Every structure is written in C-alpha cells, then in structure tokens.
Amino acid sequence: MDYSSLIKDIKAGKMAPIYLLHGEEPYYIDLLTDAFLTHAMSAAHKEFDMTVVYGKDTDVHTLAGLIKRFPMISPFHLVVLREAQDMKKLEVLEPLLLNPVKSTVLVLSHKGKVDGRKKWVKGIGNAGKVMHSEKVKEWDLSKWVMKEAAIKGLKLDAKAGNMLVEFVGDDLSRMSHNLDKLSMLAKKGQTVDALLIEKVIGVSKEYNMFELQDALLNKDAFKAQQIVKYFSSDPKSHSIQMVIAQLFGLYSKLIVLHANKAFDSKSASAVLKSKEFYAKKLVGGARNYSYGTLIRIISELRDYDMKSKGVGSTSNTKEGELMKEMIYKLTH
Fold first, then answer.
1. Statement to judge: residues 66 and 126 lie in one domain
2. CA distances (Å), 177 to each of 15, 41, 152, 189, 201, in order?
3. What SS3 class is residue 30?
C-alpha cells in the first residue's frame, strides 16, 4: 500500500488493529513507524497506553501479554515492535495475528522482506494492513530525489539532483536529511543548483563522479585525470572501490547497448529502462567505444579492483596512484 495514504490515515485516527511494515528499504519502515509513534495518540495518552519494544530485547510471550493488555485512558493500546526481524519464533503469535485484539493496535516493524505465503502474513493482510517497502531501483533514484524534493517544497534542477544521487547513493534516509538541509537554507522560490549543492553539502560541481562519467563517455582523458587527481586528495570520500563500482555499471550499460544495437535514444531508453535524456548521453558514449574495447575495459576494472585489495600490487602503491593509472588505461 502507499505510504503517504497510510500516514494520512494515522493522522486522521483511522486505525486498523494490526500493521506489518516490511521490506528491503528501511527508510519507509522507519518513516511509518515514527508516524505511529508521533501521531497515533495524544501526548497525554502515550505515557499510559503506548508501548515500544525491540525484537532482540523481548520474546513472544512478553509481546503476547502486551497485546492482550487493555488500554488505561485511550480507546486503544498501541504496541510497536521495532526490529521485528530480530525476534525469535514470531510465528508462535499466529493466533493473535490472525484474530487481533480489538482494544490493541499492533505495529510490526520488520526490516527485510517476509514470506507472503505464510499463514500469519496472509492473516495480517485480511485483518489489518501490510506495507511492503521496496528498494528504489538505481535508474529511478533521480526521479525519487526530484519527487521527494517537491514534497519538501524544494526546487532542484536536473544536474543538482544527479549530483545528490552520485554523492549519497541509494541511502534514502541520508538523502532525505540532505534535502531537509537544502530546504532550510534555500531562499523561497530559489531553484537549487550545483553551486548550492557544493556550498551546502560539499560536492564539487566540477569534480564528482557524475562529471567523471561524462568525461569518460566523451573520452576526455585530460578532464578525467583532473577529476581523479581531486579524488586522490580525499580518498575517504572518493575511494577507488566506489569509483570502480560506478564505472563498472557505466561500461556495462554501454555493452548492453552494443549487444542490442540500441544506438538511438528511444531504443536505448527502452533497453536500459531509463529516462531518454540519460539514454541519449549513453548512446553518445557507446559510439565512442567499440564492443571489444568495452570488454577490455571491464577486464581492466576487475584487475584494478583486485589491485586495490592488495592482489597483484605492491603494498606501498597509493590508492590515488592506482586510480590515476586505471583512468589512463581506460582512456587510451
């Protein structure tokens, strides 16, 4: 179910007797759990009729007792089980999960996907509500950032959004925090651009992974070396393993375009399931590299991945030097 509609129901006091929040993406699970804790009942009632327990610190028998406990002053007793994945033998509670106690609202906050075929999971779906929190696909991250920014009343230009994705990755909680920071500092009506991203978050508008990928797609060896020189000055923020992982994904996409002979933006967009403007950029890169060269590059990346871990490289070789050497081989 949609998380925003569930939050609206919580704020409006429209409560089901039982909720299962589960999935691979912890951001929405935490967001919804916090919504229950913040909005499900008044502050005066929380002290008497809200109980929060953690899976690793409690057991099924204790939890069963809490579920059966009657509320003192509120219309219901709110029981929130955080980190439910750490509780052993949760299925023992099946009778209570299939037939929820009417005076209790039970929230199971489970990091990780549960097996939807299990009887107790199906039972929760019938008696209450189940929210599956899925990971945002890599190709949808930029879209997610733009949508989340709009929800927070923040205007982002496309490049600023891409810089955030490159800098933060798929950590949605961290991304949301950075968007909150930007929304507090941006002036009313201001469009957040690369300059503000650089000022507030510290991502260089010229020397970042997004710009390195552009340089490599255009086979601009000089600019690529400038960027990795900057990276080597701050290896904690730009590790060679991170660079290799990003480039492996980039060149793999170019190989897919060659394999499918997708050399126009529309067909490339369909093959890669990406926005057409991004596909157009990759098509330009695919034309700059032959299929054979791309296969060699993938082999080089694997070789430098091993070297970065101490295999086939002397122990005194600095990470920055390895990175510069690797980029030289990719562009020559």
1. yes
2. 28, 26, 11, 20, 11
3. helix
Report which of 90, 88, 109, 118 is spatially closest to residue 27, judged by C-alpha positions: 109
Structure token digits, residue 54: 């953690």
Q: For helices 158-168 and 209-217, what crossing angle results, to 10°? A: 110
Number of domains in the chain: 3
List the domain range (segments joined by +) for residue 286: 209-331
Of 133, 162, 184, which marks where a domain is finished? 133
Q: Is the pLDDT of residue 198 over 80?
A: no
Answer whether residue 314 shows pLDDT above 60: no
* Residue that finishes a domain, picked among 147, 172, 201: 201
Helix (H) / strand (E) element for 20: namely strand 18-23
Summarize pLDDT for 141-178 with one digit per residue, the tens. Answer: 888 999 999 988 898 888 888 878 877 778 898 899 88
Give the integer Cα–Cα distance in Å for 23 and 185. 33
Amino acid at 228: V
pLDDT tens sequence across 227-276: 888 888 777 777 888 899 989 999 999 999 999 999 998 999 899 888 78
